[in-house]
């Protein structure tokens, strides 16, 4: 059993920090893309728009049934081809692992968020829609000002829990050799041979961030539960 | 489109044999990992609900630690760090394990313990969803704490949570793919290997995707069948902990939610 030596941290923390910032940026971007797109996907299913609703259902089912790593591999392969076709000359456009990660996580999370929002939409009381009709609100106004705010509010604890899982899942960009928090640690570990210290530090960092975030969600949920039980 | 799968590989097999061997590792990991997870999950879940402060804090700690570290990081901890921090003799013995098993056992341990923390939360939700009268009746009959849990609380709680365990089953078979990072040649790794060997990426990933979809379908059908077989007549299924509030709100507003799965 070798003795642990954390002095290596003193010189390596700027690199780890930049890795953590990448993880957080990826989480934030995937959250933003995922929420906007997910809401759209949920609404298309909610309105039963022909063809699109079926395609989206298939997309969500497939994405939720296969591992994220396989999704990352798929997008790494497919996105350049699709972009090539969109640009017109048909030749694949390589975009690099970083953009692939952002696109993949955005589209992947959209499937999960859309499922949460879709179920949330089912939960809205019928009376809300009837009241909107009685007030002669347009469909757009009904959803924009009455229905969606309620859905987002009710679903916010689940959406946030999902986002914490998303933050943990960003570590999987390791398979694309990107330098997120884990990627930074693993590259340093290979350079200086301090595998044990590096991976322990990363584990503690993830643990601290995720459990702090979970505590916040739990507090929010409690507050929200009080607010509705009045 | 999948013709390439039946071509000869450099080692005299066909590519489809690579995929099937990957599928074998994936299934073995998911199956054995599930039983480890289920066993530990039930014990820890019970621990979350007992009066004894020592056990409840211990169980809470377990759940917090294993749920808040990414699976991939846990995988590295078991594979790289664990042999280094145990006594040297044991560490050396672990490093002597021959190749496929040297990746398989850490992956099995990692997935089992990680999934256990998620199952523990489901079990706790199931136990808390039971009417208080059950435990009071058990007390009134003079059952000890152990007997109450063994014969009254746990069997009922497990029957309640079958629907939400479905998402954990889906979670564990998907998480088996993380084992490729420590060198286990499971399904996703084999698909990537075939794509690199043949440049038929579409066929290779397509075949793997179809296999995963079939697995998901089988898992879903099996869990639905189990749920039907053991459902307590007249009971509403208990939702995921993460989904509990939403589920409760939805029941208040009179709509019955579909299964909420927020697990990858």
TrEMBL record, chain B:
<protein>
    <submittedName>
        <fullName>Amino acid ABC transporter permease</fullName>
    </submittedName>
</protein>
<comment type="similarity">
    <text>Belongs to the binding-protein-dependent transport system permease family. HisMQ subfamily.</text>
</comment>
<feature type="transmembrane region" description="Helical">
    <location>
        <begin position="23"/>
        <end position="46"/>
    </location>
</feature>
<keyword id="KW-1133">Transmembrane helix</keyword>
<dbReference type="InterPro" id="IPR010065">
    <property type="entry name" value="AA_ABC_transptr_permease_3TM"/>
</dbReference>
<feature type="transmembrane region" description="Helical">
    <location>
        <begin position="58"/>
        <end position="81"/>
    </location>
</feature>
<keyword id="KW-0812">Transmembrane</keyword>
<keyword id="KW-1003">Cell membrane</keyword>
<feature type="transmembrane region" description="Helical">
    <location>
        <begin position="202"/>
        <end position="223"/>
    </location>
</feature>
<feature type="domain" description="ABC transmembrane type-1">
    <location>
        <begin position="23"/>
        <end position="223"/>
    </location>
</feature>
<dbReference type="Pfam" id="PF00528">
    <property type="entry name" value="BPD_transp_1"/>
</dbReference>
<keyword id="KW-0813">Transport</keyword>
<feature type="transmembrane region" description="Helical">
    <location>
        <begin position="101"/>
        <end position="120"/>
    </location>
</feature>
<dbReference type="InterPro" id="IPR035906">
    <property type="entry name" value="MetI-like_sf"/>
</dbReference>
<dbReference type="InterPro" id="IPR000515">
    <property type="entry name" value="MetI-like"/>
</dbReference>
<dbReference type="InterPro" id="IPR043429">
    <property type="entry name" value="ArtM/GltK/GlnP/TcyL/YhdX-like"/>
</dbReference>
<keyword id="KW-0472">Membrane</keyword>
